Amino acid sequence: MDAAALNAFLTAEFPQVAPDFSVTEVGPEGVVLRLAVGGTHLRPGGTVSGPSMFALADLAIYCAILSRIGPVALAVTTSASIDFMRKPAAGVDLLGECRLLKLGRSLAVGDVLIRSDGVEAPVARSSMTYAIPPR
């Protein structure tokens, strides 16, 4: 699936998150997903909340997997870890750059670096494993 197909899939299958997230790139190693940061993503102190960053990482890996195997809505997270490293830039979208490390028949493993748009230093790093349902 390319970026347009992934965005259409998110709109159809996950309308609750589709307005906030968009796939901006699909490549041989993974995808880049954008979180359009708004008021609902902020925590006290004006920074992006941990749950919003976690959602970005989780959805980036999900989209990277679907970019390779097609629209399998029931692929699910089985393991997740996230490290928050620095405060995101204020008022700036976040980008989740996912790299798939393993894509098997029943499991996929990926890493995501989350950065503030236009800032090189990552704000968070996540590693996740997904279960892929049998076809």
Describe the structure.
- 23% of the residues lie in helices and 41% in strands.
- The protein has 135 residues and is α+β, with helices and mostly antiparallel strands.
- The protein has one domain: Thiol Ester Dehydrase, Chain A (Roll), CATH 3.10.129.
- The strands form 2 sheets. A 6-stranded antiparallel beta sheet has the order 1-2-6-7-8-5. A two-stranded antiparallel ribbon has the order 3-4.
- It is globular and about 45 Å long.
What attributes characterize this protein structure?
135 residues, alpha+beta, Thiol Ester Dehydrase, Chain A, 6-stranded antiparallel β-sheet, two-stranded antiparallel sheet, globular, Thioestr_dom, HotDog_dom_sf, thiolester hydrolase activity
Content-based structural category:
alpha+beta
CATH topology: Thiol Ester Dehydrase, Chain A
Question: From the 3D coordinates, which CATH architecture would you assign?
Answer: Roll
Arithmetic mean of pLDDT? 95
Task: List how many beta strands DSSP finds.
Answer: 8
Radius of gyration: 14 Å
| Proportion of residues in helical segments | 10-25%
What string gives the helices and strands in order? HEEEEHEEEE
Can you tell me the CATH superfamily?
Hotdog Thioesterase
Q: Specify the CATH class.
A: Alpha Beta
Pfam families: 4HBT (PF03061)
InterPro entries: HotDog_dom_sf, Thioestr_dom
GO molecular function, one term: thiolester hydrolase activity
